[in-house]
Amino acid sequence: MSRHENADRNALEARMARLEERLDERLDALMTRLDEVEALVARVERVVNRRAREQQDTLRHLEYEPVAEMVAALQLLPRLGVSTGNTAVGPTGVSTGTTGVSTGGTTPPLPAVGGWAIEPSGLLAVVHAVQTRRPQLVVECGSGTSTVWLGRVLAEQGGRLISLEHDEGWATHARAMLAEHGVAEGVGQTVEIRVVPLVDVDVTWPADSPAEGGALPEVGENAPGDGEAASPAGPPLRWYDPAALGDLTGIDLLLVDGPPKATGPHARYPALPLLADRLAVDAVIFADDVERPDEAATVDAWCAQWPQLRRGTAPSRRMAVLHRQVQQR
Ligand SMILES: C[S@@+](CC[C@H](N)C(=O)[O-])C[C@H]1O[C@@H](n2cnc3c(N)ncnc32)[C@H](O)[C@@H]1O
Fold it and tell me: Domain count of the chain?
């Protein structure tokens, strides 16, 4: 072999060695990527399976939910003095004749439950708690239909409802509904709709709370997945301005149905961090919309943080009930 041929051959071999090296590197990168994809597929599979189980659960509920809600509505109406037959009784059981409602035959229909408003089953549970526990102070986060229904019960039996509302326009609408139904509204009245703006509060979402909904991560992204811890605590959350809530002490019943979720993530979580020390020793808390992952995680986070809270029997899959246990001495 000539010197030239030898040099060519060496160059070729060197080039082949470099190519082999690059091929190995590419293969390594490909294998790493494959591992990532496999891990992602496994994670997606877990999330999809969990979602499928949840959907099956939802479908099972849907089969009887409309019936259950109708039964709840039928049980709810007489408690508010609304007739479901020829005669009506007031919430206190006193007959109101054939007028339909205890406050007179011309009283407009009660605002519809469901949709943005609490479902009949949840409202029935809250009304039942109000009628049996006879709370002196009820605080509601988020006004609407529930304000009118609870206002009607409290107007009959005594006690006050302070309803926190961030939306001035919605407060005007809710006040008009209360006026239509003859429920006194204002400071010191049966119901006070307190317009309180949402502000950044000194509360952050707890870092070790479960992530909402098990969001699907991108390849290579270290997003929290099925059963993993959420990212560290985020920025302060927005809630009703605590400066406007200084007088709320001894809350016997707290209904958390606002702010709406569109106002930000974990919108309802600050309720307990900011009101826990304002609750009466035997207070009861109702949290609506817990079929939504964020609201469910909120209730879980409260229970993790306040071990003295005990879950009561949920009236529906949408409403959670928590009892503040009286400390045994
Ligand atoms: C879930 S709603 C509260 C509903 C109330 N507790 C009830 O049972 O009717 C939470 C907030 O959504 C807003 N909201 C209530 N009803 C609404 C409606 N029909 N359309 C748009 N916003 C509404 C109000 O600002 C309210 O504070």
Answer: 2
